[in-house]
Design goal:
Blueprint lengths: L1 H18 L1 H7 L4 H6 L7 H23 L4 H27 L1 H30 L9 H6 L3 H35 L1
Helix pairs in contact: 1-5, 4-5, 4-6, 4-8, 5-6, 6-8
């Protein structure tokens, strides 16, 4: 999984370099004007939570269902590839448009929730490739949950829900604070 991540991260970097500096500055998502507007926008966290819940759970739900089919490997690799490609592209776009300050904006835009999303997809991959997830489960939880595979799927859903909550409520506060302080 790590090899897949780094390979597609490299592809994202190469794609952004192939697009060229002029296109990234003109059409890129890291335009300084739009990033500066984040400091003054009125934020409705509950509406954003509902939007993210719908968007993220569609892909995650299809990923959970595909884990039980032969297309699970392709789905997990595809999700990892898309996230890593996008991250590589965004890093180059931020570096070209705003320098190292843009890199900080990109890191803050993915900061707390990316760990929860990574844990959720790792849990799905563990469900798909792991032979005995009960080895890693604490003893007290093993008694509470008779089927560790179900516990693993439920914990991935919990990680995804926490990630969506962090992305909708905590992430905008961190990003706004950074932009107001350093912009």
């Amino acid at each position: 999984m790590a090899g897949c991540f780094f390979l597609f991260f490299l592809f994202g970097i190469l794609a952004a370099n192939w697009a060229g500096k002029e296109k990234l500055e003109k059409y890129g998502v890291m335009n300084q004007y739009y990033i500066g507007q984040l400091a003054y926008v009125e934020w409705d966290g509950s509406a954003y939570f509902g939007y993210l819940l719908k968007r993220r759970l569609q892909l995650f739900g299809m990923s959970v269902l595909s884990v039980y089919t032969r297309f699970g490997v392709v789905t997990i690799i595809g999700v990892i590839a898309w996230y890593s490609f996008s991250l590589g592209y965004l890093f180059v776009n931020a570096l070209v448009c705003m320098g190292f300050q843009g890199m900080a904006v990109v890191l803050l835009s993915v900061f707390p929730h990316i760990f929860c999303y990574a844990a959720a997809y790792y849990g799905l991959a563990k469900k798909m490739f792991g032979r005995s997830p009960e080895i890693a489960m604490p003893i007290g939880l093993r008694r509470a949950w008779q089927n560790p595979k179900h516990f693993l799927v439920l914990s991935t859903v919990l990680c995804m829900a926490v990630g969506i909550w962090l992305e909708s409520y905590v992430n905008p506060l961190l990003l706004r604070a950074y932009i107001q302080k350093f912009w």
